[in-house]
């Protein structure tokens, strides 16, 4: 009797087990059938994301080639025909300003140099004229003096056909410091030289460009304009002004034949960064003013907002990538894509 009872219990257990297995198999099939839709949906989303990234990469690659490579291979553009006979370059006795003026002279553009040191102006003017066989002129102007010097500049330029204006003049901090430690004189110099000069020079030259329906204005901003720069607060803010001013002005006057460009270079080996023994030395990362100007001029008419140099463009991209990686590791704060694109590492 006990044996029959044992086999009976075993048979019942086997039936229960088989039923459980059958239920699990059924449950698994139902779950698989339900999940297949989500898996397919995720596969579609993944494919769409991959396609978007590939298209974006292809577009960015083409844009980089179009801006930094093709102009160098396709030959020189006739800047005189495209914009006009004369170019005005401020802050043109040293650094990027001087190199940019020389690069324009290579293209046959006559140059008007504007700076505060008469002896340097005479020397650079004579050198450019003799080297590149173009006409040159110069205007002595200390932009830190404020509004009093602009009537004389306007009078000196009234009979010139200005095709290109390069607002390059600018001053930097003697060393990084807190805003409250800066003297009032330093603050006014930064405002007058970095902000007011570009504004007023543009106001003087632009009406003539509009009248002949062609012209180009280049404003030397900086990569620091793309993020807040503690300890360089006013300098960074002044460069942000130039960047905004350039873009807004281009939208206002593009339909009238005027091209306005914001140049945002990273570090170049000029006197402005002489305070640092590291960045003032020429290296693969820090081009000379001449190297930078050669590439920057080739972007004229192609991009309204650019670093101006392919090495600097790579630094910009790496900066975005570094910020993206840094922010992705934070659990509580995930910046938007726009925030990624404006929080660049400090280039100077």
From TrEMBL:
<dbReference type="GO" id="GO:0005739">
    <property type="term" value="C:mitochondrion"/>
</dbReference>
<dbReference type="InterPro" id="IPR020904">
    <property type="entry name" value="Sc_DH/Rdtase_CS"/>
</dbReference>
<dbReference type="Pfam" id="PF00106">
    <property type="entry name" value="adh_short"/>
</dbReference>
<comment type="similarity">
    <text>Belongs to the short-chain dehydrogenases/reductases (SDR) family. 17-beta-HSD 3 subfamily.</text>
</comment>
<keyword id="KW-0521">NADP</keyword>
<keyword id="KW-0560">Oxidoreductase</keyword>
<dbReference type="InterPro" id="IPR036291">
    <property type="entry name" value="NAD(P)-bd_dom_sf"/>
</dbReference>
<dbReference type="InterPro" id="IPR052149">
    <property type="entry name" value="17-beta-HSD3-like"/>
</dbReference>
<dbReference type="GO" id="GO:0016491">
    <property type="term" value="F:oxidoreductase activity"/>
</dbReference>
<dbReference type="InterPro" id="IPR002347">
    <property type="entry name" value="SDR_fam"/>
</dbReference>
<protein>
    <submittedName>
        <fullName>Hydroxysteroid dehydrogenase like 1</fullName>
    </submittedName>
</protein>
<keyword id="KW-0496">Mitochondrion</keyword>
């Amino acid at each position: 009797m006990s044996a029959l009872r044992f086999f009976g219990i075993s048979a019942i257990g086997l039936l229960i087990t088989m039923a459980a297995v059958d239920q699990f198999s059924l449950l698994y099939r139902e779950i698989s059938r339900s999940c297949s839709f989500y898996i397919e949906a995720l596969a579609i989303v993944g494919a769409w994301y991959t396609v978007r990234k590939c298209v974006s990469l292809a577009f960015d690659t083409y844009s980089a080639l179009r801006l930094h490579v093709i102009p160098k291979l396709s030959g020189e553009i006739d800047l005189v025909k495209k914009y006009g006979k004369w170019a005005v370059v401020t802050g043109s006795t040293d650094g990027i300003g001087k190199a940019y003026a020389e690069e324009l002279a290579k293209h046959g553009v006559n140059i008007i140099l504007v700076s505060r040191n008469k002896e340097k102006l005479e020397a650079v003017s004579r050198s450019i004229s003799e080297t590149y066989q173009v006409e040159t002129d110069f205007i002595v102007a200390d932009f830190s003096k404020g509004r009093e010097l602009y009537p004389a500049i306007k009078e000196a330029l009234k009979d010139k056909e200005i095709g290109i204006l390069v607002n390059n003049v600018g001053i930097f901090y003697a060393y990084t410091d807190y805003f409250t430690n800066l003297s009032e004189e330093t603050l006014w110099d930064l405002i007058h030289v970095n902000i007011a000069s570009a504004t007023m020079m543009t106001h003087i030259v632009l009406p003539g460009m509009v009248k002949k329906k062609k012209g180009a204005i280049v404003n030397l901003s900086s990569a620091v304009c793309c993020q807040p720069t503690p300890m360089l607060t006013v300098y960074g803010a002044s460069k942000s002004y130039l960047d905004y001013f350039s873009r807004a002005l281009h939208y206002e006057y593009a339909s009238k034949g005027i091209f306005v460009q914001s140049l945002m270079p990273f570090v170049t080996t000029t006197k402005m960064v002489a305070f640092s023994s590291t960045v003032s030395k020429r290296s693969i990362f820090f081009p000379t003013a001449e190297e930078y100007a050669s590439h920057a001029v080739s972007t004229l008419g192609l991009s309204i907002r650019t670093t101006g140099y392919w090495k600097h463009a790579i630094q910009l991209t790496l900066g975005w990538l570094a910020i993206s990686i840094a922010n992705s590791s934070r659990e509580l704060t995930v910046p938007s894509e726009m925030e990624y694109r404006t929080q660049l590492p400090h280039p100077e």
